[in-house]
Design brief:
The protein is an alpha/beta fold. The chain has helices at residues 2-27, 56-75, 97-100, 159-163, 183-188, 198-201, 229-244, 262-273, 301-307, 330-335, 355-371, 406-420; strands at 85-96, 102-112, 117-127, 135-142, 192-197, 250-260, 277-283, 341-347, 389-390, 393-398. It has a single domain, classed as Alpha/Beta hydrolase fold, catalytic domain (Rossmann fold, 3-Layer(aba) Sandwich). It is globular, with a radius of gyration of 23 Å. The structure holds alpha-D-glucopyranuronic acid.
Length: 427
């Protein structure tokens, strides 16, 4: 009896080991171009019933809604209808910020559904030089709190960090990610910037929902397509735009949404849904952002949905290790931005985000720009490092690691100057 148990046990262990090995081999990240599967990208301009789209009008009335439906039901989840009440309170103001070139404001947003409230703090800089004409505005999140974007001690801690201050003091470091929001560079070029900590909207943790804005909004019945963090972050970006467009110092026709990495995914989804964003910028957004999923290079749907189960809607996991079965791909998400302007950027060492997949995605979105008489990316070949493309779709690849740097910002500013017709100032 004992012997049988031992044999049984060892067979079980061997089997488990074999299965484990198979699973880990299967889940091994692919960084080899020759191992990219032979994928077929879903058609941009052919409707689900096979009808070809030849005009912008057909695109808007027929094809665009089909693509939109897929992304909202099977990738990011559905954004519920209904508006929240938001109260805004300016909690700090400095008219002579950055050596007098800018006005800095900190504005507390209090979202309410009548029963519950959620607070989020916006940090705002606008150039004093464009107060009368209204400045173009970048809207985007930061990772480490508003205080993490600057060494200026006047900048308050974001509410989320206040709430956890006793536990993780290293998160309270001031200025840790200041190069990601180079306010002086932005102001010198005549732009305004509004940033908020994304944890204020939805704490980026598996159990973050309980402390997020999601509690205040109705949920959809279908659990599989219910929105999660990326959807809620996108909603938060639009909430910032609701406030910005009423500000006298802002040019409401020149709002740009920007995001790095996971926030790049959210910026794309916000930019797609909210047409008030005239320029949509994805910085190293990778898997579930700009990069094509069907290439299965770098991060995969399997990894992202396992590691971050709170980002996408549950139904997205259906495509884990089944990228070939995806009826749509991320180039179609990018195409939903047209005819507004799109910029995608990669970094040379950021293989996890698949720079080539990010480029090809923007390239394959480009026929849509052509349909609108605009110019997207024209070559299937990626440009070299340091050779940005600035058509109606912009793209650059920077030397270096996964990050957003003043170099990237320089290109975004150039692109926006071109889109909005500004003469380059103080470059
Ligand atoms: C992880 C994650 C990526 C994400 C990145 C980031 O690497 O796998 O999908 O883009 O974090 O947000 O920095």
């Amino acid at each position: 009896m004992m012997r049988t148990t031992v044999i049984f046990k060892s067979v079980a262990i061997t089997l488990a080991l074999l299965c484990g090995m198979a699973a880990s081999a299967k889940s091994k990240t692919n960084y080899d171009e020759s191992k990219v599967p032979n994928y077929i990208l879903p058609e941009l301009l052919t409707c689900n019933d096979g009808t070809k789209v030849t005009t912008a009008q057909e695109w808007e009335s027929r094809r665009r809604p089909e693509i939109m439906e897929f992304f909202s039901k099977s990738v990011y989840g559905q954004t519920p209808e209904g508006e929240l009440k938001v109260k805004y309170k300016v909690v700090a103001k400095d008219r002579k910020a950055l050596g007098g070139k800018a006005t800095m404001q900190q504005v507390m947003f209090t979202f309410s559904n009548g029963k519950m409230v959620q607070r989020a703090l916006a940090l705002v800089y606008y150039p004093n030089s464009r107060k009368k004409t209204g400045a173009p505005v970048f809207i985007g999140y930061n990772f480490k709190g508003n205080h993490g974007t600057s060494n200026d001690t006047k900048i308050l801690y974001s509410p989320y960090f206040d709430s956890i201050s006793n536990r993780k003091s290293e998160l309270l470091q001031r200025g840790v990610q200041s190069e990601r929001w180079p306010m002086e560079q932005i102001i010198d070029r005549g732009y305004a910037a509004v940033t908020m900590c994304y944890h204020d909207i939805y704490p980026d943790r598996e159990d973050g929902a309980a402390q997020s804005l999601i509690r205040l909004l109705p949920t959809t019945k279908d659990e599989g397509s219910r929105w999660q963090a990326i959807g809620v972050w996108a909603y938060g970006l639009s909430s910032i735009a609701d406030w910005v467009e009423r500000q006298p110092w802002a040019n409401r026709e020149q709002m740009c949404v920007i995001g790095h990495s996971r926030q790049g995914k959210a910026a794309l989804w916000a930019g797609v849904q909210d047409e008030r964003f005239k320029v949509v910028i994805s910085n190293n957004s990778g898997c579930g952002g700009a990069a094509l999923s069907k290439r299965v290079f770098g991060e995969s749907i399997r990894f992202i949905t396992k590691r971050f189960p709170h980002w996408f809607c549950k139904d997205f996991t259906k495509y884990s290790e089944r990228e070939a079965e995806l009826p749509f791909d991320q180039h179609q998400l990018l195409a939903l931005v047209a005819p507004r302007h799109l910029y995608v950027a990669s970094a040379s060492l950021d293989r996890w985000a698949d720079p080539k997949g990010e480029y090809l995605s923007a390239y394959h979105a480009s026929p849509l720009y052509k349909l609108y008489g605009m110019k997207g990316l024209e070559s299937e070949q990626m440009p070299k490092i340091g050779e940005p493309i600035m058509n109606d779709v912009g793209y650059h690849i920077r030397e270096g690691k996964h990050n957003i740097t003043p170099y990237d910002w320089g290109h975004y500013l150039d692109f926006c100057d071109k889109v909005f017709g500004y003469k380059v100032v103080n470059k």
